[in-house]
Amino acid sequence: METMQATVFHGVNDIRVESVPKPHAGPGEAVIKITATTICGTDLHIVRGEYPVKPGLIIGHEPVGVIEELGAGVTGYQIGDRVLVGAITPCGQCRACLSGQHSQCGHGFGCEAIGGWRFGNTINGAQAEYLLVPSAQANLAKIPDAVTDEQVVLLADIASTGFGGAESGGIKIGDAVVVFAQGPIGLCATVGAKLMGATLIIAVDGDERRLAMARKMGADVALNFNECNVVEEVLKLTGGGVDVAIEALGTQPTFESCLRCLRPGGTLSSLGVYSGKLQIPYEAFAAGLGDHRIVTTLCPGGKERMRRLINVVQSGRFDPTMLLTHRFSLADIKQGYEVFGQRAEGVLKVLITP
Amino acid sequence: METMQATVFHGVNDIRVESVPKPHAGPGEAVIKITATTICGTDLHIVRGEYPVKPGLIIGHEPVGVIEELGAGVTGYQIGDRVLVGAITPCGQCRACLSGQHSQCGHGFGCEAIGGWRFGNTINGAQAEYLLVPSAQANLAKIPDAVTDEQVVLLADIASTGFGGAESGGIKIGDAVVVFAQGPIGLCATVGAKLMGATLIIAVDGDERRLAMARKMGADVALNFNECNVVEEVLKLTGGGVDVAIEALGTQPTFESCLRCLRPGGTLSSLGVYSGKLQIPYEAFAAGLGDHRIVTTLCPGGKERMRRLINVVQSGRFDPTMLLTHRFSLADIKQGYEVFGQRAEGVLKVLITP
Amino acid sequence: METMQATVFHGVNDIRVESVPKPHAGPGEAVIKITATTICGTDLHIVRGEYPVKPGLIIGHEPVGVIEELGAGVTGYQIGDRVLVGAITPCGQCRACLSGQHSQCGHGFGCEAIGGWRFGNTINGAQAEYLLVPSAQANLAKIPDAVTDEQVVLLADIASTGFGGAESGGIKIGDAVVVFAQGPIGLCATVGAKLMGATLIIAVDGDERRLAMARKMGADVALNFNECNVVEEVLKLTGGGVDVAIEALGTQPTFESCLRCLRPGGTLSSLGVYSGKLQIPYEAFAAGLGDHRIVTTLCPGGKERMRRLINVVQSGRFDPTMLLTHRFSLADIKQGYEVFGQRAEGVLKVLITP
Amino acid sequence: METMQATVFHGVNDIRVESVPKPHAGPGEAVIKITATTICGTDLHIVRGEYPVKPGLIIGHEPVGVIEELGAGVTGYQIGDRVLVGAITPCGQCRACLSGQHSQCGHGFGCEAIGGWRFGNTINGAQAEYLLVPSAQANLAKIPDAVTDEQVVLLADIASTGFGGAESGGIKIGDAVVVFAQGPIGLCATVGAKLMGATLIIAVDGDERRLAMARKMGADVALNFNECNVVEEVLKLTGGGVDVAIEALGTQPTFESCLRCLRPGGTLSSLGVYSGKLQIPYEAFAAGLGDHRIVTTLCPGGKERMRRLINVVQSGRFDPTMLLTHRFSLADIKQGYEVFGQRAEGVLKVLITP
What we know:
The structure is a homotetramer.
Chain A: E1 3-11, E2 14-21, E3 30-38, H1 41-47, E4 64-70, E5 82-84, H2 95-98, E6 130-133, H3 136-139, E7 141-142, H4 149-152, H5 158-168, E8 176-180, H6 184-195, E9 200-205, H7 208-217, E10 221-224, H8 230-238, E11 242-247, H9 252-261, E12 262-270, E13 278-280, E14 293-296, H10 303-314, E15 324-329, H11 333-341, E16 349-353
Parallel strand pairs in A: 8-9, 8-11, 9-10, 11-12, 12-14, 15-16
Antiparallel strand pairs in A: 1-2, 3-4, 3-6, 3-16, 4-5, 5-7
């Protein structure tokens, strides 16, 4: 039996790079040889035991690679094609997908959300030499020759999610937007707000390096919450509130500050992953009478989404490689987890190459 | 000085029908002679001191009447025209109005929401013989001869709000919808869901008379929360959650139940007026990853909105007089407040005629 | 080799019911035993040589049946399940489908439109004993026991298309809508307008029987174009134009009349199949400055669309069997074509049962 | 009686700068002292007799100035405030405005479109020393100190219209867009497409100077229709058609080419002013089955629109002064008309200062 190296979750704070069977493609599936991947904040939650997955699972969900095998029924591709696969792999054929809610893909349609997130969650993931891709017809996005692997690896999740926050917010030309937290997702939300025509983008964080990056990425104003009352400042800058507030962290204070920054009729676009109960303060919510909207977005996936994001990069509108601050081989991925987990050395994203 | 009879708020639990000066129309304004009005749940909040207004204010915000005076610059109307005026009176000319958010009307654009609600809140209201209408050009909706005052009086607020909850929810043909609470607003939300093409409308309340009315109004299923586990029942009926859940009460349990009834990607459309902190449970919100939307709606006003609602009635799609369970003269309005406040005698809405 | 009876196109005005090989399901496919189907106006175009298909093709695209075979990879179904399949069979996995434009399905994404229409067009169709269904996972909609085959057979195309015209028009509560032509599609557009909350629905045709049916289906006003100037009448009834005009025939006069009936900012929703050049008159188009929208809609397909339409029927909102005026066996389908083609005997739709 | 200098239309090809009475502000109105204005293509149509206005009318509709008089009821402004007024002056209070279709403003709601365009059309215009502004409360947009008159004068019409073409097209991140004609409106449509996140913007014109400007303004590709088959080239560049095609000229060939460049499901956003009958070719329209949309846009006006456009300039996203190629005093405006009318000297827009 052929084997490969992969990052396997064995238990809380116990991941190991080890030899596992190499996957093979069944009908409708594909196997890709991974050429670039990265570590996500969600992977940290998994390793720390904050998000439960089964021991024995290969983790990681941001895959770039080369097609190694194509299962029966997958057409229009060649072995050797370079492809990007989104973190979310919609089947395109279930009730959720046919309703246009591909991230909530599930062959049934129960109340369980996030059905479309499979890699490194319910099936083996991308921090490995090879990856089995389900619903391959819907999920393999070819990478043009003019674009490198490094340029697209961050599109699989963080750019798709960050831009998604701007899109779900319904940003329009001339909008004022605040983005709370300028980690990788928040930075991409800042970029997304710029791409959609916001003309006052206020980036909020407590880390000056991240605020400096936010300015480079298109923020008009960067506010350090250690140095000012952010809500007051935003209300002053906007003459009474932003059109759209994007939450990119997943905490009560950032969620609540977003609400407090909204103008009447404004939209809170939430990207964070929350734990425990969120509270909506009475007055920040105008007692329910402010015509406010709160929208949440799970990373959009599928090959058409990836194709569009590749276009964004290829056209020069956005250079995601600015966020790739560190590089490790798959063999050394545990070091990558350490640097990324400790937010050491100004780390934003870590590139992993098998 | 001419006087008129009006319902004046003097303090908590102290309203009096008394003689006050009759208003006159300045530029852009109109005075109407009230022929029909009603009492709203919000009026109860005011009388009970739960929503603060200034002593001396005439309350009430659901006016039907006859034009008595037209101020300079108001064109296209005649003295004597029968008109309906919405509870919310947008100016049409401020930043909020020009952005299409007429309910949040305000000549500035600060964070204070609900700027468009003036009658019986920031200016004198409709429980009187005469009413001064601001921004009259934008707010006087003529009533066709074929339609009676009683048929339209409930359009000013409850039908506009209830339908608004269905509209903000974005209901589509074939949707499954649950409406929590079948008071006047909730019943109108039920009607709105029917009008927009929902094909499974589940009405929830604890009062069998209200549930019976909900069935008459178009609900396919009526659930009494005293007799079943509503969330479980809704999930079973829908095979995993509704497309849209409408909250028409303003409490933590109904808000939370709405969230728990949603399918992934579903919308919670909130109409309630909340007090205190609302909580969003982690699991009901899919930790923020369910592509859920929460939207709130303040009663849409303005003459075009009223014109459309009058069409709904005139076309026979909806008969609001079914909700007018009691009738009082203006002189006896305090009795009306008692019956309505105690939810006595199966009361839904109370008609007041000066 | 097993055979079956099927309606085969041999050339212009030459269709024959004859014996052909019975199909078998490959991976991702299914075979259904047809229990009910019908004849569409498009089939007439094919038979008359107005729409080209290859000789030897089995025609028909409105299938109801029982699952006979399931190909590899199709899950969640059992042999014997009763299913409805839409006229359009999106794959769910191509660029068009993943963009939410399932009717334009095509594994590439060229300029050729209507890629999602396959049955009786590019692959064998439904006027046969058995039908091979491509992309079965996305296209088999189970029929609840409480609903009969006759109740759902018209959902595959005409109801989906007609409702689609109302949906693409963006009809809102209180809208005034005119529907030009009250054939089966136009009648379904009338129903769709009613379902979405239009409160003045004006049905136009030259056949009194169809106008009578339109009134039964929800039209508020029925205009016979032989007896009045329809555009003038519509402008008078609406006080200056409809919000949405639906074209359900495919001719220059109806298209142009739709435009002339629009209010500024109104929407022309076109369902017709046109031949030759359409003209947009300068003045009817406000020289391009009227904020008009013209939208076209190809029948939406896929199992989720069918599920929703079945709900419309099951909830009692719409009874499509009222449109089934004639019944023929598959052996006698040529008689059905004659009656339907000549619009004889007040025919609306013809039911075919193998 | 006070007089002022103004550009008066006396008949075909007969405009004169002459002395006329200075206007005064009635209730709800304002008078502004013009500090900058410009000449629009529509003014050329008027002068040439192609668009009829009454002799004696002052023409021009792109006003920047200083408040000189405020009529009764106009609040929140001071004499001396610098303001921009849109070419379209919605009242905010009629049926069209309250429906959100401010460009179609009209106190009635008849079929006559473009009701919101008054300046230099139905009332005196901006090519004068003073201008009477109707519905002033809705139409005076204050100009921040940091922004000059020259920076905002092109926002009144061409930027609002051009951006409007992009907005009506519903451009999304990653879209491919073609813009036919790179005159001032087309160039602004190109900018609008960029602002909304299009990542392949193809500008088409026959004038190399305009194509060069298009590239500066954000076009990714510029095609000279004298040198290539534009439709073929666009289909090749996009792999089968653009998402949105913007028509910014108003001719049959550009309109038709737009249609031919669309992918199935794509949108033609039309900004041109057409004369005579437009034709929609059968095959370019997929016989009505391509899920195409054709949308038209009249310049959006009102002070909130202007405020947003000023933000676009102030934020540095767009520098409209690049389009101001020539400058004339009001006294010399006829020279301006000549240069602009003959498209001499690479003219794009002409600044007029009284």
